Task: structure prediction
Amino acid sequence: MSKKRNYTYRSMRDEREYGPYWYSALWRIIRPILVFAGAMIVVIGVLYSVWNKVYDEFLAPADAASQQEIAFAVESGQSLTRVANNLEEAGLIRNHTVFKYYCDFAGMGQKIQVGSYLLKPSMTMSEIADQLTRGDGNPIVRNITMIPGWTIEDFANDLVSKGVLTDSTEFLELCRTGEAFSDYYYIADVLATKNVSQRRYVLEGYLSANTYEVYVTATAEDIIRRLLSQTERAFPADYQERAEELGYTMDQMLTLASLIEKEAKNSDFTKVSAVFHNRLDASMPLQSDVTIHYLTGVRKMNLTNSDLSVDSPYNTYKVSGLPLGPICSPSQAAINAALYPDETYRAERYLYFCAKDPESGELHFSRTLQEHEQAVNIYAPLWSAYDQSRGIQ
Result:
């Protein structure tokens, strides 16, 4: 009985000195949580302070209160590093290195657009990067494209339609005479040829097919020179040597290439070239329909006697050999084909080809006139249907 009383006494004493057991257990659980929470508050506070310092020194707008618009230009060929340096020098960002890393990390490094922009020091770094990559400034350059198979007139119309030129008159006149470009040796050679005054455009075939970057302020002459400068790269020294080996000039090879470009798809370029070379070797007229199309401005499959009788040095049904000059700007593939015709078709003396279904662009090749006439009888109805579907008589 005394032991029970002693136990009760000790329990009451423990409660007075240490509190209830449940409280002690709860405190043992809560205490590490409170310690962790306190530590986290301290860490967050430190990180917040560090972030504020980093933001203020590197990421914040250069001047959050300024609404002044500053003209800023990104020029062609400038690297992201140069753009970032220029932004810092203009007082538009706080740190060029941070801006560069930000653009690289965000995948904007290769998307900065050439142009003239109005930017504010109050803009954030991301706002500036976004505007420069959208390219919504006033561009200082633009792209223009001479498509393979286009004539000078096609190209001039495209330049006008896209607002590159306000009018095609000056452009066409410069291309017609070519006199302003005699400093290019290959144009000087053309100007020295016989009957050059009868060419529709001296520069036809010499405005190399490609895509170019030109200044928005470029004049008609600037644009022509930009394309002429590519011609020498499209017809390098080894091409000159190959042309001489075949017995032709650069002008004649570009003329042949222009016919090939208009007559066939890429897959048939070398075969068409072989047929033309074989006919030239045999002193046969080329009888190429595309030279008539160049004269009439209408592409049709069934040529009339009136079409074929056009009196022109471009009409290969009436003149022997090549036409007076190129009839379009040939592609690199067509130039290659003119210089390197299909050797099998040359050796087997193919002399004729005609279109199959005009929609597909496939050609039928023949060795003899009899084979050719048989093919024409098969495919002629398709040509008539094609012309009728386009309203051509």
